[in-house]
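Problem 12. The chain below contains 55 residues. Write out its predicted structure in token notation.
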Amino acid sequence: MSPDEMLGTRVGRSSEGRNCSSESKRKRGGQNYETIEVIRNAMEFVNDRLKTIAD
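Solution.
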């Protein structure tokens, strides 16, 4: 699973050819909660990977 797949991010292309988040300009209700959950899931994933490497 790639980091983008794990975090649920999508990269779009703007008309100028710059990379940008597809939702970077929009705010939705519950966004802070979703962000916290993404961070927690990422930390758990990385911790599991590090434990596997250490063993």
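Discussion. The beta strands are 11-13, 19-21. Students who got a different answer should revisit the alignment rule from Section 12.3.
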